[in-house]
Amino acid sequence: MSSSTARNRKDGSAISEADVTTSSMPFGRGSDTDIANTAAAAAATEPIAPNSDSTSTETSKRKPPPPEQPSHMFRRSLIIASFWLVVLCLGVPIWWKTTTIYRANLPLDQMMSWADGKSCSPVLPIRIALASPDLNEQETQHLISITQRSLDEMPGLPSFQLRLEAAAQTSLDDNLESHDSNHIPLVLRLLQGNKTVSIPTSSLHTLFPILEITYPPSLRPAPETISSGLATYIAAQIHETFAEEQSILSYFLATSTISSDRQQHSSQYGIDESFSKRMTRSMKYSGTYHLTFSLFTSGSSPSSWDIESAINQYMKPVLDMLKPIHNFTIDTQVQLYAVPGVQSQVLTKEDLSSFINAAEWPLSPSIGGAPTINFAIYMGNQTISLNSAEETTSQSWLVPQWGSVYLLSPPAATHVPAEFLKQPVLTFASHLLSLLGTPQSGSLSMRLSTLTRVRSVDMLLRASSSLGSLARLSLALPSISIPSSVAEGVAKSIHHLELACSTLGSTDSLEHARIAETEAERAFFEKSMVGQLYFPDEHKIAVYLPLLGPVGVPLVMGLITELKAWKTKRQQKP
Amino acid sequence: MMTSLFSYLIPLFLFFSNVFASDYHEQLNLKPLPQSSLLASFNFRSNTTLSQFEAHNFRYFPRSLGQILQHVGTRELHLRFSLGRWDAESWGARPWDGTKEGGTGVELWAWLEADTEEQADLKWLTLTNALSGLFCASLNFIDETRTTRPVMSFQPEGDHGSNLDNLHLLHGVLPHEIVCTENLTPFLKLLPCKGKAGISSLLDGHKLFDASWQSMAIDVRPVCAQGQECVLQIEQTIDMVLDIERSKRPRAQGNPIPRPPPGHDLKCNATKPYHSGDTCFPSDFAEGEDWSIDQIFGKFLRGTCPLTDPNVPAVCIHVPERRDIFTTANAVELKNSDGLSRCYQVPSEGEFSMILPRMSREGDNAKTIADETVEPETPLLYAERSLTGHGQERGGVQSILTNPSPDTAVEFVYMESLPWFMRIYLHTLKARVEGAPGVKDDIIEEIYYRPALDRARGTQLELRVRIPPASIVFLTYDFEKSILRYTEYPPDANRGFDVAASIITILPSTSPGAPPLRLRISNLRTTSLLLSLPTPDFSMPYNVIIFTSTAIALAFGGLYNLLVRRFVGADESPEGAGGLKGKLAFLVKRLSAKFKGAKVRTE
């Protein structure tokens, strides 16, 4: 159809050209004119004289083009519209679909609210059981209520709630284990002293989480009193017992991203530099740790040691205590001809950091996911001078988040007996506790239960901040692809965070927080997200321009002329 | 039995006799080879009882390797780093019967404990990644396309008892890997004495990787003796062939460019008719070299490793009895009864060296070449392999296997693991025998073939072949070169692709009167091949984009204009709208009118 219209127009133009040719025939001569005329008429359908329009005379003879049929104009509009329809409805969606980057839907609001601490304010309810065999039930309840009141009046973190309650009536001594499982971190035992006692005294049990308070009979709480000296004393004792845990918690809150509005705690609860140093040296929490005991000698002896029995004797009790929170795998090695990084006899504080010869000593981390804690014994006579003025020397030092080193003067024989290793292994045991972030005060069992609670809050905060980082990352980099596994990890992490938040303070919450943390980390460090494809704009132009230029220009020009024609037609109509 | 053995087999003999004498053993075996070369074999072996290994107590066994083995359940491991070519024509049989060498590059095979094949694959992946980190090698590139499960070629060396059923053998090769100093350093770190004392103090990257041929091997296997607890044994071996003259070159002090020796130092062959003051035909290797350990290795041997059994000599040299050897003080010489080797007990402290002076070929006490080196033993089989054919589409491989023995047939397994982009046509596999008359060509006894899957696994071809005495076998097959995808080409695509060495396992002889050399499995590897694939011009994608875009744009523009343009007569077009030409003409006219007007005005 369109070709026939073109032919029609062509015919018209050819005829007019033929006319021009006949009228301005430059070499028409006498008798030849007729022949020329007939030839021109015969060849009317084809333009014979290309130089005809270049002659300057005929510009004045321009005619207006014949009026266009409205059906032709309509058809042209339809053609242009259908081209644009194909481009917009087929081309653009295909282009969009094939070049777009897959981004799984992340619950960004939820993630940000976790990171901002809006979803869960970490509240640690700590139940303290009060056992008072000498008081009757009513007196006990009254004492509890007034002690609780004075506890609440004491300055403290809002997220740290000490709750007093009466101990179950069963005998305390028989049921120490069951108390542990009931998550009662501290049992108060009130004992009425004899007449000679004038002021209340307290003592912390060395093995079990029991605080014994002996009070003089004169302080026996009377009913109907609003305050009592005994209650104040008890409250102060409890507060003191949990002071360290509270400061650790406030440290975590202060250093995490949640705490922007809680910054004041850091000054309020005395987070000084030494405390934050102690916190930064502890390892990242993990369910399992590899412990590597290494014996280094600069020469060839000693080449064997009784480390296995030494660990069994001196380290195993600590590891057994830690079992509910951490698992440990142990390996030992002997390394001869290991030259330390520092050769001097007296090691200064600066030397300690370079003493471990990382290039030559085979202290590579263990295979598997768990972190490695290194305990290195170096056979040498070196001494450590802490301060040039003081004469005190030490034999061991702790390397933050890595392990610890002990300098042991070499024995005469080539074999190191277990007794010789007693001091180093005991030192390592105490270093292990501080590397794990255990609090320093209190009995061991209390320290460990504190560790559980503190660690679960720590993991909770870490997981939340990882989620927040992931959310910010996905907002900041619109061209990064987010695979569905990330979304799954985030969902899992949030689920476990909720569980951990609801049961905060128990061992379950530690497990949930740990899962949440690993899932959040895995989502954040997703491999396919790290290497994002980068196409510079120049490359995009170089690829698109050769096609879009020649195709786009006629399309756009056609549209513009059509719109112009339509506009003029509208202006002419009225 | 000893007399028929070469001296480098002595440690092997010792190994069989007193393997449990000490938990740590090391020995250096030197053997001068023809053409002024020297084979140095370092052997280190340490044992740990399996119970200590399970309890994670590491003493002689390296912890870093032990943990990896435990983590992935590896029961036996063999790792090889090799460089260069063993010149069997002049150097004879290979050290350790070829069992402690790999093909060029890195080769790894291991027996993993796993219930299913998928589990074994996962463990293998972990193992290669972990070893890659430990040895600073690209072992993590041993992916599924480079991994095979040999059927006939490898047999476990250790004692695995009855639990052989759930062991999976996996084998991977990286022929492209360049072995260098960064692989030697972790290798030495595994040793108890760490290159600080004992024979390992001689090892130096500059000398080791300057050798004509070198091979580093690590073998871990459980060994059980009757009535004793099973031990896990790690054996580390370094074999290298040094060019004596090249190694003696002093370490350049400021001028690293080697200079030709001055004229008066040149050794000329005086028998040539044109020999004169200014013409010299070099006489290589004609006269023996004088050398010493400190010259060859660049340093002295520093004492002994104190963990070794002091009764085991640290250094052995394999030369005829008449060869003069001087040593530094306090070394004890122990001559072997066969007259072909002697060993030295090295003082535990201080430096040790061994000097072999030049022996005069003239005068009263003239020595011959037979007094300097022991004639190398003829290997059981010579093997070479090369690519045939031409063009970018097809090619062929030809392996020439020669049995030099005049009376014994050799039976062996020939294994090829080829990359998937080398698609072989198994029907073109042909064996042609030359030499002994009247021998039929059907010498291939068994074929195991696992065809390649594109991008998933390579070809595995194992052939059991029996070569009749004194004959040459030509093993040929054709293959097709496939075209890779754009991103599959390495950065140096035009260099070519390395094809791993084929592994030849010579099966022990079953005949009763066979010599002891034939009673053990011995190995042989051909050189690796460099296959050039059709390599595209890498700017091609952009060219394709431009070209297709232009074609589309041309077609589209023509069609579109034809559809939407209105055609009118040339005189009917509006003024100035006659396309670019019309516009230009219009512009020229206006310009010329203006110019004329200006001219008129100036006049």
Number of DSSP helical runs of chain A: 18
CATH T-level topology of the largest domain in chain A:
Collagenase (Catalytic Domain)
Shape call of chain A: flat
The helix content of chain A, as a percent range, equals 40-55%
In the sheet with the most strands of chain B, the strands line up as: 6-7-5-4-8-9-2-1-12-15-14
Q: How much β-strand is present in the residues of chain A?
A: 5-15%
- What's the pLDDT, averaged over the residues of chain A? 75
Find the count of extended strands of chain A (DSSP E, 2+ residues): 15
Using only C-alpha atoms, the radius of gyration of chain B works out to: 34 Å
Taken together, the total number of domains of chain A comes to 4
Distance between the termini of chain B: 125 Å
Q: In angstroms, what separates the terminal alpha carbons of chain A? A: 33 Å
Quaternary structure type: heterodimer
Uncertain spans of chain A: 1-58, 170-181, 259-269
Largest sheet of chain A: 5 strands, mixed
Largest sheet of chain A, order of strands side by side?
2-1-3-5-4
Structural class given helices, strands, pairing of chain B?
Answer: alpha+beta
Largest protein interface, residues of each chain: A-B, 57 and 50 residues
Structural class of chain A: alpha/beta
Keywords (chain B): Membrane, Signal, Transmembrane, Transmembrane helix
InterPro entries (chain B): PIG-T (IPR007245)
Pfam family, one (chain B): Gpi16
Protein name (chain B): GPI transamidase component GPI16
